[in-house]
Amino acid sequence: MHRLLRTLALVAAASLPVAALAAPEPIKVGALLAVTGPASLLGAPEARTLEMRVQELNAKGGVGGRPVQLVLKDTGSSPEKAVSFARQLIEEEKVFAIIGPSTSGESMAVKAICEEGKTLLLSAAAAEAIVNPTLPHVFKVAPKDSFAVEVIFQRMKKMGISRIGLLSSNTGFGKGGKEQVEKLAPQYGITLAVNEVYDKSATDLTAEVTKLKGAGVQAVLNWSIEPAQSIVVKNVRQLGLTIPIFQSHGFANVQYVKAAGSAAEGVVFPASRIVVADQLPATNPQKPVIEAYRKAYEGRYGEEVSTFGGHAWDAFGILVAAIEQAGPDREKVRAAVENMKGFVGTAGVFRFSPTDHNGLDIGAFELCTVKNGHFVPLGN
Amino acid sequence: MSIDLALQYLVAGLTYGSIYAVVAIGFNIVYSATGIINFAQGEFVMLGGMIAVSLSRIVPLPLAIAGAVAATAAVGALVEVSLLRWLSKPTVLRMVVITIGASILLREGALFLWGEGVRSLPYFTGDEVTSVGLLGARVSPQVFWVLGTVALIVGTLEWFYRRTLLGWEMRACAANKDAAALCGVPVRRLVSLSFAMAAAIGALAGAVVSPITYTSYAVGGPLAIKGFTVAILGGLGNSGGAVAAGLALGVVESFAVSVLPAAYKDVVTLTLLLAVLVVRPSGLFASGEAARLKEF
User: Fold this and answer.
1) Is B117 in Cβ contact with A207 (below 8 Å)?
2) Is A146-271 in the same CATH topology as A27-143+286-361?
3) ipTM above 0.85, yes or no
């Protein structure tokens, strides 16, 4: 009996290496996304997009013959959770690269950990501070918030607006935007008559908006990524203020428009061209990429695309392109990403360099507005 | 500050204040009947809003709200019957821990059922941009619905406790459970009823307020904390005190935004709470002597 068992065990052990050789080892790609929590309208589309892409890629044989295994962690929009999941992904799961986090606050928190762990990080968040100062392994695929601010200010100057009220949330994204607004306002002759910060889980902003009314501002600028974006818009209109409302590029998910209903009409915000893709000219190089993404995503999930899902699409695309180019070697892939020029993504055409880990310029943004519940380009 | 601006702040304050007051009333109902602080109260408000939104897709609005109230009342009674009734040694600490656990369970259940998105009922009258002029201030009609609903709840509760046999029996339970039992009051059933009532009230408030604040799976937690603060401020067990304290707190928060940066809103609330508790530990409107006689 014992001899039989021992023989069986030996045979099993001997066949293991053979079994391992037969199946190619998957490339583990980690993802830190805010699928729940205040930033869920960013993280949930990102997670769905990644799952869709990974499945598509694996159906075609993976990358370099190896399938991709997605290890997705839901950070709940919390920088603290992002930190602990980042450690888990790097130290326990030993992932090849990490896509995400969804928000600026989380990205700032995990930046140093990924650099320490020499793991490539492709963040989908906006704050310039993520890539400035530049860390070798930290990249971001979303356009910088400073560009968004400049695009808005250029428009305000054109409209003759000089006195505005700024409302921002107390998240990394809100703070980053606030800093950029304060820094760039004097260059465009704009004064911030009111400058208020509200909590990310705020459910009513009537008091803050009343303060705006009292200060007699010519326009409202709101910088946040939470449902508060919809609440602010409603509160402003309910208070009888007809002044123009500007939002950050955090508004670029049509769910926020649906939540705000008729109050969202006429809100102006910068966004990547993905939200107005059907209105792009056929000559635009991004159009085929965006259309492909839109068809796949809307066909599979039945909801409209947003810029956020687009970031996940771009990050994954860049990673796969780099692996195909340089092979599954971490440092080589990192260098490949750093020198990638001309990658056409949903957010723009990327031109990375050792000093520019974002790869996008102000042209990535298109000023859009809301008309009849849909996003349309603002035009002139 | 001009009159119409002050009025605007006042109305904003009364709106949030009445929401806190309703949550606090829920705490008080359960506390009076049982001595338990039910931290799942915030989740009842959340459930009311969420269930009403789901039902509103199938039945007309008033039925949807009624259905949500009934369903949440059932959930409240269920929480009590399944989790709290069978405790052999019911200490306050155990009750608190169990109700916090129940709130986590309800919150995760809501996340599983409805996902992470925010949702709301349609505005009862008008839409997202209608507003009525009130002496220079502009107010959404939904605010009047909220204030009216809270007034209705408070009025009905007053009538219930003062004029109905069931209300007297609940007050008897609150005063002394053993004596009430000896007098033939069905204490166990009334405890379940008190949970059901608190849940129903929370649900109604949650449904009426959802067009203004949106509801989602996570709104229960912060609401419970604010509501608990207001309940303590007004004196635990004193519903009238809860309303007064809630409205006062909401108004103070709102006016604080006019002088301090809005980021300090919660600082003001908590400083006020601490100050009141130092001077009058039993709360603003409770009798000091009666409070000393209670266990908690």
Assistant:
1) no
2) yes
3) no
